[in-house]
Amino acid sequence: xxxxxxxxxxLLHVGGRENVTSVTxxxxxxxxxxxxDQAIDTAALKSVSGVLGTVHDxxxxxxxxxxxxxxxxxxxxxxxxxxxxSGPQDLSKEQDWKKNKEAFKAGQKDSSVRSxxxxxGEIFVPLIPGVIASGLCAGLNILIQQTNPGWxxxxxxxxxxxxxxxxxxxxxxxxxxxxxxRAAERFGGTPILGGMLGMITGLDGINTLARAAGWWNEASPxxxxxxxxxxxxxxxxxGVMILxxxxxxxxxxxxxxxxxxxxxxxxxxxxxIPYVFVIxxxxxxxxxxxxxAVQNVCMSSSPLVRSAAGFASAALFLPMVSMGMHHGLxxxxxxxxxxxxxxxxxxxxxxxxxxxxxxxxxxFRKAKKVNNERxxxxxxxxxxxxxxxxxxxLIYGVTLxxxxxxxxxxxxxxxxxxxxxxxxxxxxxxxxxxxxxxFTMTAGPNAGLHSxxxxxxxxxxxxxxxxxxxxxxxxxxxxxxx
Length: 482
Prior knowledge:
about 5% strand, about 475 residues
């Protein structure tokens, strides 16, 4: 019997193709989810040539054992027949976390909001190495200066601190230029033109134009309607989006022989005036409002308000990630980093990974008790990465497929988030989390060693609370069947 015949016979005894909602496969089995459980004929399935056994231990779901190698080929036949793979509710507990992540993402539907937020992620992902390097240098610089009061008198430490400062400053000074370059690439325009528009944003000539237009506030330059840096990366992204459209229109109307000379010139001339005098002031109001709102919550004078914000942020962060809504946070990080030099929300969000570690430890203990060796091996392999701040193996390999631990991990993380935000921990960058994020948590009102210690305490609180809550609400029966 070939694989197509085997699949057709299997489908026949589970109620036919129309009764099947999804089919996935592990190393040896086809995992079939159906609409009507009564249509599954277990006895007939066992009699099919090529079927080695069946497992029908819960409603609307049956596993058909066909053997190693055959299961993947049968799964491929199902794809050819148009039978979908698993969605979020069908995550396999025997597949590796990468396959589970792909299955989960495949089950999501795009929305206009998610697509818009995703644009920011696509623009900034290539910039992340620079973000991380810059933030780590800033954090190390703060720690060196705080632990060595006389660092300026030491030639060696003075050179080291200057070099670290140069690396950090090189990124922040030209952040709008990098953003413009990447935005033009993302929108299909000429990258250097986007980079030039972005660099214009931060030049001193903007202040000269502001004075000429009467938009400069001599008493408080930061409150000027127009000033250097006004609107930041939000203005750059929006401005470059318009620039790319203008560039494409000009290119389509100009003779080919003149394109290389006049298209860039006309594009910049057409865009620079509305960009400086319209987009920068308007987006300045938006970015300023965002920072004002975040500061009045994350850095509120009330510890209770800060704690509530930290709890909610940490507890809801991973559900936001799973729905693809976290891309918009990149814009928030960038706005805060550019305007204030540090990020207030990110430390609380880092607690989410520690919550996953705590939940996994609780499950590991119960897996040992019920002798679920497979689950113990999965957790053992994923825990080191989770501790270092890489949470995907634990999320997609353990907690999310099981369901309830994903929730208890988030609740446990909320306690750590409440603590670090109450203590006003702030980061010099975003990207590193877990233990790897230690040297970036050196900014804010408690800058330096105090901030680092508060961050580590928050990780411990998140881990312990998630472990306790998971132990209380996840039963040994769930762990046994995982």
